[in-house]
Amino acid sequence: MTTDSGLEQKIVANNDPIKKIPVEVAQEILRAVASIEYGSIEIIIHGSRVVQIECREKIRVNQGGKR
User: Fold this and answer.
1) For the whole model, what pTM was predicted?
2) Which of 13, 32, 40, 47 is most buried, judging by how many CB atoms fall within 10 Å of its CB?
């Protein structure tokens, strides 16, 4: 297995302090997670900032009485 040395350099070179997520954004992400039973949540980031949260909920249809 090979590693991407460019990625490793990027990680090592990134000595920025840990960026904090605003409380409002964290609450919206948690609300999205709590609101769906099946599906996915996509968090869109631009310029190191969360700009959009997309929720895709899957609806399971019970066909023939089997789950």
Assistant:
1) 0.61
2) 32
